Amino acid sequence: MQQTRDFLRSIGLPGADPSDLPSSGKRFPDGAQYRVEIPSVEGPEAMTAVLAEADRRGVAVHRVSQGSGGLLLTAGELAAMAASGAAEGVEVSLFARPLAGWGTGAAALAPGSAGLAAQARGTEQLVHVLEDIRRTTEAGIRSVLVTDIGVLSVASRMRTAGALPPDLSFKVSVQMGCANPASIRLAEQFGADTYNVPTDLSLAQLAAVRAAVDIPIDLYVEAPDDLGGFVRHFEIAEIVRVAAPVYLKFGLRNAPNIYPSGTHLTATAVALGLERVRRAEIGLELLRRYYPDAVGSGRRPAGLAVPVAPGDLAPPGDDAEPPVDAVIRPVDAGVTVEGALS
Questions:
Q1: CA 38 to chain centre
Q2: Longest C-alpha distance within the chain, in Å?
Q3: What is the rounded distance in angstroms from the CA atom of residue 49 to the CA atom of residue 270?
Q4: Burial of residue 4 (number of CB atoms within 10 Å: 0-12, 13-18, 19+)
Q5: Fewer beta carbons under 10 A from the terminal one: N or C of the chain?
Q6: Averaged pLDDT, groups of 10, the chain, 342 residues long
Q7: CA 25, CA 331: separation in Å to the nearest integer?
Q8: What's the pTM value of the predicted model, to 2 decimals?
Q9: How far apart (Å, rounded) are the C-alpha atoms in residues 287 and 294?
Q10: What gap in Å lies between CA 328 and CA 316, rounded to an integer?
Q11: H or E element in which residue 208 lies
């Protein structure tokens, strides 16, 4: 095995999952180690309720994400979520759909083929997902959730070419499934701006991923049942220490999967969102208890893909604003991490 471990080190990857759990020296642009994400915020009503509850509980929410996709929001609902995110300085990340699991193909629904459900099936569905991203950004949203590596690579090239906004952020979904430093580094190279790792990675495995990539890691510290149902609140302090910069993602165990959501499920979406904020308050209390020196972002920090208010959108053909500087920087120029990218 030593030859393989040596080769991994020669290409800048860890040769093993660290046993000493080194502290990460990487940070968000504002110097913070962690930020908070509330997932499954399905629509403007749920978003309004989540942000109000966060204010009431003193929880700084930096990003809300949604799983039903921009395609299941009306133009008015997209504009409302963009306006709310712009007003509050909160990133709004909408899922890029449709994907195979919602298509007419049978393979994605077959036993043993669950991994196919999150992939774009055929050229036409690839086009549909890219069009969903385009429609979402035209409403002012500047962050999208991507699960398919082909969608990520093409959308990233579109962003570079100016066919999508230059300040658009690609948040890779947990459903992409990459679970080791080499594959997650590939996603980074294809244009991922943050990566949601599998919910069950150990602290050592998280440290290995952190050594290989510079982009923020997104991690469910409480996972929905269909993603494992893990409740890792007592690990949050160590997660922040070894995986920074990290988005602490507060899902909810023992809750229904409401994708695709709609007005028939608004009350449920709101109730689930409120409890996720409560879980975040608990998790942050434990973080302060066990790692009081951990640094979190305040409100409106640098590097968030905050929406553009609909009234501030540039007319077609106008030059877009330059992208927000979201480069991860080390706390100390002298800090080095084995295998880290330059």
A1: 10
A2: 59
A3: 6
A4: exposed
A5: C
A6: 95 93 97 98 98 98 97 97 97 96 88 86 97 98 98 98 98 96 98 98 97 98 95 98 98 95 96 98 98 96 95 66 39 38 32
A7: 6
A8: 0.89
A9: 8
A10: 31
A11: helix 203-212
